[in-house]
Every structure is written in structure tokens, then in C-alpha cells.
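Appendix B, Record 12. Input sequence as logged:
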Amino acid sequence: MGTHQEVELLLARVGMGDRAAFKALYGLTAGVLLATAARVLQDRHAAEDVVQEVFAHLWHKASETTAPSTRTLAWLCVVTRNRAVDHLRKRPTEVSIHGQADDGEEIVHDAASEQPGVFEQLSFEQDQQRLQRCLGQLDPEPRQAVLLAYVEGLTHVELAGRLQRPLGTIKAWTRRSLMALKLCMGSIA
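Logged structural output:
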């Protein structure tokens, strides 16, 4: 995995139409993005489609896209996760809660082929540790709201129902918590 600065520089070059930079960015990040999408979708082929869409969007819109100045890879993972959640919401229910297809056939998830390499894993683990420290600084209920939104993909309305809090409170919690996390992650980086 390249450094944060390398990924950020490659993304900027992609915005200028640099095909070599696009290829290099893909090589550095596709494995992590595929793993991100696969965790949400539990379907490698659908995850590959999501990653393809993310990269197609980056190629066509990179000059208009503004990644945060810190943690570009984390931003790409969030974009990929959000697109995967969108796919999950759009597709008909194909998988039951027990991990079987509607026809009763067991779904086999090939996690081994989605594992990032040693450097990717180290970078991811460092980001995870930073994120855990920053999440620890949030109050318990807002932290739970943020985690449910990003891990389970719940909307504000779904969060309000699950946490039995007013919609305005949920929106305020998530907005303030995300701002606090952005500041914390930026100061640690």
C-alpha cells in the first residue's frame, strides 16, 4: 500500500486525466476497496461491480471530486462502502438472515481472496487504531448512532427508530460526531 500522500497525489493526477496514475491508484487501492464492498454485500461479484463503479466515477469525475485533505484511502473506503450500501438497498432480497440464498443453497464467502497484503493490512490496522481512539472520545449514544450508520448502513430515520430518539437529535449527533471524528483523525494523522 502506498503512503497517504502517494494515494492523494495519484488521485490528483487522475483528475488531470493521467491514465498511468489511474492504473497505479487502482493497483494500490482496489484490494482494500474490494474487501470493503465485499464485507457489506457478502457477494464477491457484486463487490467487484461496486469497485468498478467507484473507479469509473473517479475516472470521469476526479477533476470535480474533492477528497478530504487527510486520509484519502479512508475516504475512498467510505465512498465504496456507501455505494455498496446503495446496491444492497436496491437489490431484491436474495439472502436470508441465515446466510442462505432463497432457494436454500448455502452461500460461500471467499474471504481469503479478498484479504489485503501485509502493507495494506498494517496501514488499515493503524487507521483502525486511530479511529478507535477517536471514537472513544465521543459520548456513548452519539458513538452508537455513528457506528450503526456506518457499520449497518442505517439511515437517520432508521437510527431514530432503533435508538428511540427524535430524528433531529439523531441528525445532530451524527453531524457533530462526524465533525469531531474528522478533527480527531486529522490531528492524529
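The radius of gyration is 18 Å.
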